[in-house]
Specification:
- Helices cover 20% and strands 34% of the residues.
- It has seven helices and 17 strands.
- Strand 1 and strand 2 form a beta hairpin.
- It starts with a strand and ends with a strand.
- Bound molecules: 2,5-dioxopentanoic acid and magnesium ion.
- Magnesium ion binds next to strand 5.
- The site of 2,5-dioxopentanoic acid has 13 residues, from strand 5 and helix 3.
Length: 279
């Protein structure tokens, strides 16, 4: 079961048909108790819509939720961060947080700053080393229950964070530093542990990076990350949590304006964004 936002309307896509969800805001809908059952029942009482989502401009699947992120949840991410921070002397912090009981969690974006499918993601004009990070992104409702998944792009300025880890908020949070989409997948049971994440980056019609990895490489459990996030904070509208990256391009790679970043996750769909800068 998938929820899309198209032209401000919420559309429900089942395996066989599509339905318009009426009289419920996004925030109210995604916080319905037993969301999967609610949507399954909804589809049995409504007439399917004639036109399909295919070919329409889909928006980011978000209402007023905050977007948070977890870091250093995969070995590849730990190694890359240790590498980029070796001159600052901070490499040890990444090694420690990978092993520690408490995960690294940080605020990533508001809905207003975040891009949706086919919108631009931006690289900072004061950074020379930028990468996209394709991340399985959890949706937890107001009760802290994981009820859905989407694709998240945690755009990162590696030179800014590498210079000093205290610059993390600037490396991670700026206008259009996050993209999510194309939909909120609401499955009947938790996502398969062997689900694959794929990313390719295209420049001048050529693929200059591509990779795939399974989420089973992640060191931490989804519930563990959400547990820490909700420990001392409330999210009355629910919250998105990016779960960390495991696909990091080689150190000589940086994004350039005009690049196309294509991410996909089995069962969820694809998220494509063009790279640009703030004007
Ligand atoms: O510690 C910095 C951020 C790590 C991150 O974003 C990731 O591992 O995906
Ligand atoms: Mg990340």
């Amino acid at each position: 079961m998938k929820l899309f936002k198209v032209d401000g309307a919420v559309l429900l896509q089942t395996a066989t048909a599509e339905y318009k969800v009426e009289n419920l805001s996004w925030d109210a809908l995604v916080n319905k108790e037993n969301l999967y059952d609610f949507l399954a029942a909804y589809a049995t009482t409504q007439a399917p819509i004639a036109s399909t989502i295919e070919g329409k401009q889909v928006e980011a699947p978000i209402g007023s939720q905050e977007i948070w992120a977890a870091g250093v949840t995969y070995l590849r991410s730990k190694e890359a961060r240790m590498d980029e921070s070796k001159e600052s002397g901070a490499a040890d912090f990444y090694a420690k947080v990978y092993e520690a009981k408490r995960p690294e969690l940080f605020f990533k974006s508001t809905a207003a700053r975040c891009a949706g499918p086919d919108q631009e993601v931006w690289i900072r004009r004061d950074s020379q080393w930028n990468v996209p990070e394709p991340e399985l992104t959890l949706f937890a409702n107001a009760n802290g229950k994981i009820v859905g998944y989407t694709i998240g792009n945690d755009m990162s300025s590696r030179d800014i964070e590498g210079e000093n880890p205290l610059y993390l908020p600037q490396a991670k949070c700026y206008q259009r530093s996050a993209a999510i989409g194309p939909c909120l997948l609401v499955p009947s049971k938790p996502i398969d542990a062997d689900t694959q994440i794929h990313m390719s980056i295209e420049r001048s019609n050529e693929i200059i990076f591509s990779g795939s990895i399974s989420i089973n490489q992640m060191k931490r459990k989804h519930e563990e990350l959400i547990g820490y996030l909700f420990m001392e904070m409330d999210f009355p509208q629910g919250v998105y949590l990016m779960t960390g990256t495991c696909l990091v391009p080689p150190n000589d790679f940086t994004l350039a304006v005009g690049d196309l970043v294509h991410m996909s996750i089995d069962g969820i769909g694809s998220l494509r964004n063009k790279v640009a800068t703030k004007q």
